[in-house]
Every structure is written in C-alpha cells, then in structure tokens.
Amino acid sequence: MNGHSGFEIAYVEAQWHSDILASGKEAFARRMQAKGMDESRIHYFTVPGAFEIPLFARRLAASGRYDAIVGAAFVVDGGIYRHDFVASTVVDALMRVQLDTNVPVFSMVLTPHHFHEHAAHLQFFKDHFPIKGGELAEACMQQLLSLQALDDYRVETLT
Asked: Which of 41, 114, 135, 141 has the most crowded CB, counting CB atoms within 10 A?
C-alpha cells in the first residue's frame, strides 16, 4: 500500500443479475476515482454466482497482488432455495478470507427481503445499487488508509 493512487483493488462480481450489479460497480469505480484512485488499478473479475466469490477472493488475496478485494452479488429468493442462507454463508466466508489472509475484503453481497422480477422492483434495485457502490468505495478507501496509517505507525514506533 502506497498512497491512494497506489492501491490495487480486485472487484469480484457474480454473473447473476449483472444488469442490477452494473450500477453499483460503476458507482464504486466513479467514487474511487473521485478519491484519486487510477481506474487501471481496479481489476474486475466475474464468477458464476455468489457462492463462488469467497474462494476466488481467497486466491486473489493469496496472490499478494491486491490491497483490497470487493465481492458483489445480488442474492434473491428464487422460490426454491433459502436465499438468506446463501447470502449469509457468502458474507461469513468473505469475513474469513479477510481474517485469514490479512487482506481487507468488502461485501456488496446483498439480499432483498422481497424481490419480484417486475419493472418496479428491478428499477428500485437498479437505483439502489449506485448508493451501495458509493458507500462501498467510501468504506474501502477509509479502511485502506486506516490500515496504511497503522502500518506507518508501527514502522515509526519500531525505528
């Protein structure tokens, strides 16, 4: 980690509901750029679904190339499986990746209480994800800068 512009970020997104997720990803990128981050330092990856994000994130963290990893998915009730269990499992696994690898991992893995594939719901979430993408960028940059300050403090106190 070497300053705002020097951070390398991996952004991992599930393929499902990519039309909804796109607005969150775009808002994340815009906000990071507004904070001085070069867009070429945000690397985008796609995985089949939300369940695949944690393993992919773990491998990215193990590569040593990234200062932070973002996971993004929209997990909805398909009428058969318990979407809330899937979302919880994914978010828990992302937390484990972060704690096990010491690489910050951020989640925009969201699951609505109710979702129906009709125009009003689709538009609501397309309008909502840019808000979440901006919040995600804020959290990501704040945490990276806090960790950088902590690392700098440790170096100063040890020398």
From this structure: 141
